[in-house]
Amino acid sequence: MLIRLPYDVLLGIAHLLGARDVVRLCSTCRALHDLMDDRTMWHEALSRLLLLFPQPQLAQRLARLTAEELKEQVLLSAQLDRLWHGTDVRPRLIQSFHCHGNVEHVNLVAGGRWFVVVLYDGSLQLHQLGAPSPAVTLPHSLTEGESVFYLSSRQSLTDDHEDLIILQMGVRYNQCNIYVYRVALTGPSPTFVLLGRIAVSGSVWCCASGGGYLVYGLESGGGDMVLHVCPVGADESEGRASRRLSLNIGPWSADEDFSISILSESLLMLAYHGGLAVYAIPSFVSDETEVHLVRPVWSRRCDIGSGIYRISPFSWDPHRRPIVIAGTRALHVLRVNTNTGTDVQYREIPYPLGSGVELGYVGLGAVGLRRAIWDSTERRNGSLHVHFRTYSLPRSILDLSDDDPDFGGGELGMYGRLGSFTVTLNPEEHLVNVCLEEGSGRVCLLLHNIMTGARRISVIDVI
Questions:
Q1: What residues have CB less than 8 Å from 127, skipping those under 6 apart?
Q2: CA angle 441, 442, 447 (to 5 degrees)
Q3: What are residue 47's phi and psi, to 5 degrees?
Q4: Distance between CA atoms of 86 and 13, rounded to whole angstroms?
């Protein structure tokens, strides 16, 4: 019988099984139940998951986690993979936090245990979930004559998958300051680490950071769009771009928004309403002032729609992790050979819908490494309910082997799996932004009351 096998043999068998199979095995009898408390088994299972889907804050605590904490993380991951695409799911927990009306943006970080709040004056706050006050507040001191005309922010990831916050702040007419901060939560105390600050003359359309670069788009004055590439980090001078590359990509419509993703040291990508384009980044030359006229090394016309707001944040290593964009009609998946820049593997994967079924409205949302979410309520018309689509990304783009014990074939289909859930809001509340922290399955909403001007943060444990 199985229970007569030596313990190390039983443990070796358990290492070959997925999390749910281990639980089933250990629940068959009291003798096998001791396996559930074996730390090495859960440590190996969680290490496998972190290798596929990195979470730096969790990885750095790995050696200190107890067997029960390791098991909890592994089982949560398995549960999310199985239930994220459930239909009409009732969220397990919804927490609400009333906030000031000058809150502009909210991002979940660090496994969903913390969130970053961006205020209209450019100040940053770091809150631990459930704490009565922020753990860190970082104000921005404006000089005489400066005031905030507009503010936008974007969340990105470092090479080590740590959270980045990029602030784009208009402080004078025709002047914009761009700040890049790393959210540091693994040291003795939480803090924001400034990686770079650049002052720009002109109105910046869009910016992104990755791999030690900051890239922003600036209209040339003659109707062309120019992308400026600047190194950021400890070796660069704060407050000025000591080195900068300028890439003129040609005429650009004033009505055409776009999003930038930095693919590698030599490639960047633009996603816009009508398609995708990959551009080569030339080598840096000291004190270069020339503007390079460039053309895409690869491009594709496709219906991205407003999908520039639903693009996977990690793009520094696309050979391992594809760029994923949730479009209005299909999923767009891009892999780029960073050695050649022209070897682009592109797939358009239709959403898994039945015959004659339409996807419907695709609004604000977020895309991670294996899960996505978006608002599917086109018009509320006074309704108390907001509907969200959940999407487990297709198995075929996750680099999973067919016999991977942690991901059963029935959980993730060839085209992925769609689900849904609904939350109840006040009739006067409108959605400002949506954030997904996929490791915990938490969703964060920033809501604005159009009658009172008040804002509210809602953190949802979907599963």
A1: 114, 115, 116, 117, 133, 134, 135
A2: 150
A3: -60, -40
A4: 31
Query: Which is nearest to 208 in space by CA: 133, 278, 258, 147?
Result: 258
Buried residues in 434-459 as b, exposed as e (16+ CB within 10 A): bbbbbbbbbbbbbbbbeeeebbbbbb
Task: Please name every residue paired with 166 in a beta bridge, in sequence order, or none if there are none.
Answer: 154, 180
Nearest CA-CA partner of 53 in 368, 297, 361, 308: 368
How far apart are alpha carbons 353 and 22 in whole angstroms?
Answer: 33
Q: Given the DSSP bridges, would you call strands 245-251 and 291-293 parallel, antiparallel or unpaired?
A: parallel
Question: Max CA-CA distance within the chain?
Answer: 81
Report the C-alpha gap between 362 and 124 in whole angstroms: 30
Contacts by 129-134, CB closer than 8 A, 24 or more apart: 129/95, 129/459, 130/95
* Encoded tokens for 18: 């997925």
CA distances from 136 to 189, 372, 381 (A): 9, 29, 39
Give the contacts of 324 (CB within 8 A, at least 6 positions apart).
311, 312, 331, 332, 333, 334, 367, 372, 393, 397
How far are the Cα atoms of 218, 269, 291 from residue 247, in angstroms, in the given order? 10, 13, 6
Question: Is 461's pLDDT higher than 90?
Answer: yes
Helix, strand, coil percentages for the chain (3-state, nearest 5): 15, 40, 45
For 294-346, how does the pLDDT look when each residue is reduced to its tens digit (9 = 90+)?
999 999 998 887 666 688 875 555 446 788 899 888 899 888 776 665 678 88
Question: Which residue has better confidence, 48 or 102?
Answer: 102
- Per residue in 222-258, pLDDT (tens digit) is 888 999 998 886 554 444 445 788 999 999 887 788 8
Residue 285 has what pLDDT?
64
